[in-house]
Amino acid sequence: MKQTILVRHPGDLTVSWAQQVVEQHDANTVVTKVDIVAVDIGTTTRVCVAVEHNGPNTLPNRWFIKLPSLAWRARMITTLPRLLQTEVRFYNELAEAIPLSMPVCLAAQSRFGYGSTLVLADIAEFDGVPSAASDTLTLEQVTLVVEQLACSHARFWNNVHLDPKYRWLAGPIRILEDSLGTALAVPLMKRGLQQAGVHIPSVLHAPALHYARHRRAAMRFLSDAPKTLVHHDCHPGNLFWNKNRSRVGFLDWQLVRIGEGVGDVAYFLSTALSTETRKLYEAELLVKYAQTLSDNGVVDFDNTRLVQRYRAHLVYAFEAMVVTLAVGGMMNLDCNLELIRRTAAAVEELDAFSALPI
Fold first, then answer.
1. d(Cα 315, Cα 319) in Å, to the nearest integer?
2. How many CB atoms lie within 10 A of CB 56?
3. What is the pLDDT of residue 312?
4. Do domains 10-126 and 129-355 have the same CATH topology?
5. What pTM, to 2 d.p., does this model score?
6. Which pLDDT value is given to residue 175?
7. How far apart are CA 289 and CA 39, in angstroms?
8. What is the architecture, at CATH level 2, of domain 10-126?
9. CATH of 129-355, one of 3.30.110, 3.90.1200, 2.60.40, 3.30.565
10. Which of 37, 326, 268 is nearest to 148 (CA)?
């Protein structure tokens, strides 16, 4: 019988617990010490630990563990749609098929009614450098991410929903998440708009509430497109880089799903760039995305429609940041407000709400 690695609190990350993890990789390795280096509480509880062991060099000494959030509001929002369970299943079943860099998974386990535990190698073990959520990326970095997203989207273009291995991504968990988002859309949007204050132009308040009231129809429109596998939470804080920032990796797959690829691009460009840089290079980056899709064999898309769909998907990026603020405890406040400013600017400039037929 497979040993359980499930824990609920950072204090449960003991030597005997770490021993169960390493034995999944090398039965002869002995763990002698576990030290908690850092704890961060947001949508999940994220713990960095230093593990002393006598195992091979391929077994890292710094681990990054994700547990259910110790913040009650964040836990309430993430438990019903089983977001951490989704990421555990992603690493167990799908990660190896994704043509993107991501952390090495050491162990991942879920049990209904108990929770989930995800153990990754700390990216610092491999000279990885994380981004912060509010980092402003350079044009070169953003171009690289757009190209990587396009390559991954092309790999699954219009076939992922037909493969039984991936169908769970559009199954009951996602239906529950969408239903929960729709049920809470109006109160959370109202609360978020109020808390954001001057960071959201007043001209956006009425269309944002109109969108929240008609969110179900908006989601149907945004999903009516060629299907692929999307990250769905692609902001700078969910990326990591090598030391010279020439290679990128992707973190936090809790929201992975079947959806429209340009949604990832809209979410990313509206959160990762300064407003000025996005205005200058947004059209060029969309052309790069389309060209990379084409270079990877995708032919059934229209560039004009791509721009229209990009505008529409900006609304979700804006909603996600406003709802994050409304719930509270899910992201550093200053980071959250900066991403609200960026997404609000994109939505206002491109009149994104008018791109939704609601």
1. 6
2. 10
3. 98
4. no
5. 0.95
6. 87
7. 37
8. 2-Layer Sandwich (3.30)
9. 3.90.1200
10. 268
State the Cα torsion 197-202-206-209 to the nearest 10°.
-20
- Select from 249, 251, 248, 269 the least CA-distant residue to 316: 269
What sign for the dihedral angle of Cα 226, 228, 231, 236?
negative
Mind listing the pLDDT tens digit for each residue in 13-71?
999 999 999 999 999 999 999 999 999 998 899 999 999 999 998 899 999 999 999 98
**Nearest partner of 341 among 357, 325, 355, 328, judged by Cα:** 325
Structure tokens at 244: 């010279």
Domain boundaries, the chain: 10-126, 129-355
Q: How many CA atoms lie within 13 A of 46 on its CB side?
A: 14
Give percent of the chain above pLDDT 70.
99
Residue/partner pairs of 275-280 with CB below 8 Å, 24 or more apart:
275/341, 275/342, 275/345, 275/346, 275/349, 277/136, 277/139, 278/342, 278/345, 278/346, 279/349
Which ranges of the chain would DSSP assign to H, the alpha helix? 15-22, 72-79, 83-93, 139-155, 172-196, 205-213, 215-223, 261-272, 275-295, 303-327, 333-349
Beta pairing class for 248-250 and 228-230:
unpaired
Type of residue numbered 97: A
Reading the block at residue 117, the tokens are 């535990």
Distance linking the first and last C-alpha atoms of the chain: 52
Tokens 């980092």 — which residue? 135
Q: Which residues contact 182 (CB under 8 A, 6 or more apart)?
A: 215, 216, 219
Q: Which helix (H) or strand (E) holds 62?
A: strand 62-68
294: helix, strand or coil: helix
CB 212 within 8 A of CB 318: no
Which DSSP helix (H) or strand (E) runs through 128?
none
Percent of the chain past pLDDT 90, that is, above it, reads 84
Give every residue of the chain whose pLDDT is below 50, as ranges: 1
